[in-house]
């Protein structure tokens, strides 16, 4: 399904655009055709940016873009259309990773729900006899351990870059 590329994200997009076909859910009905096309394009770009398999390339692309702008000599980054989309993708990606920045009570609720989702996936993978995805094996990962791994690997890399 979806050419095995960003399957969850593409499913979310398909459901979202299907919902927009319902007149009770179509909040972009007043946009003209060109605006609807731009909305669709940007929505796809932003949702696909939440795919964690693209984490390192999103980071590398942003760093390359910023470095290229610095070489150009301007103290202010002037962003063209492509650069702005790249910055928006990075912001959406960071927002998707932002649970540890939330107040502890809210963070605790979210992390428990996320880990339960991962563990259910791991349980299903075990039942199917396939390799269990990273952080999805409830027998080998605790919530605390998962958060240390997540913080050290993802958040620290973004914040320190």
TrEMBL record:
Single GO term (MF): metal ion binding
Residue ranges occupied by any PDEase domain in the UniProt entry: 1-161
Record: residues binding Zn(2+): 96
PROSITE patterns per the UniProt record, alphabetical: PDEASE_I_2
Pfam families assigned: PDEase_I
GO biological process, one term: signal transduction
Keywords recorded for this protein, A-Z: Hydrolase, Metal-binding
Protein name from the UniProt record: 3',5'-cyclic nucleotide phosphodiesterase
Organism in which the protein naturally occurs: Wuchereria bancrofti
């Amino acid at each position: 399904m979806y050419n095995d590329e960003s399957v969850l994200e593409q499913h979310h997009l398909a459901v979202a655009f299907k919902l927009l076909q319902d007149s009770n859910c179509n909040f972009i009905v007043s946009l003209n055709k060109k605006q609807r096309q731009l909305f669709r394009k940007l929505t796809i770009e932003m949702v696909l940016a939440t795919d964690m398999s693209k984490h390192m390339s999103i980071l590398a692309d942003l760093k390359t873009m910023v470095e290229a702008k610095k070489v150009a000599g301007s103290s202010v980054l002037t962003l063209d259309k492509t650069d702005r989309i790249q910055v928006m993708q990075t912001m959406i990606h960071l927002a998707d990773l932002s649970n540890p920045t939330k107040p502890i009570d809210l963070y605790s609720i979210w992390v428990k729900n996320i880990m339960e989702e991962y563990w259910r996936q791991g349980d299903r993978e075990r039942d199917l006899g396939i390799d269990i995805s990273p952080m999805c094996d409830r027998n080998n990962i605790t919530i605390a351990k998962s958060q240390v791994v997540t913080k050290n690997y993802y958040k620290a890399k973004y914040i320190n870059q």
